[in-house]
Amino acid sequence: MAKQLAFHETMELTEIMNFKSVCLTKSTVSQALVTDEALRSLLQQDVQTTQRQIGELQGFLS
């Protein structure tokens, strides 16, 4: 990234990444527990989206 982030921006991004990581864990665990295929599919989509979003956020912190 060409622009340096301010300290508070770095902290905000870290908080968002922590929240996204918790969401990812919850969706991953929930997939194994649900029996409804539509809900399982929705959770799988959420896992994939959240993984992509975490990767994008990491790009700002690198």
Key attributes of the depicted protein:
62 residues; mainly alpha; 2 helices
What does this structure look like?
- This is Spore coat protein.
- The protein is mostly helical and 62 residues long.
- The protein has one domain.
- Helices cover 84% and strands 0% of the residues.
- It contains two helices and no strands.
- Helix 1 (7-33) packs antiparallel against helix 2.
- The N and C termini lie close together (7 Å).
- The model has no long low-confidence stretch (mean pLDDT 93).
Q: Count every beta strand, where a strand is a DSSP E run of 2 or more residues.
A: 0
Mean pLDDT: 93
Low-confidence stretches: none
Helix content: over 70%
Structural class estimated from helices and strands: mainly alpha
Number of separate helices: 2
Gyration radius, rounded: 15 Å
Strand content: under 5%
Distance between the termini: 7 Å
Largest sheet: none
How would you sum up the global shape? elongated
How many domains would you count in the coordinates? 1
Protein name: Spore coat protein
Care to give the gist of this entry?
This protein is an all-alpha fold and 62 residues long.
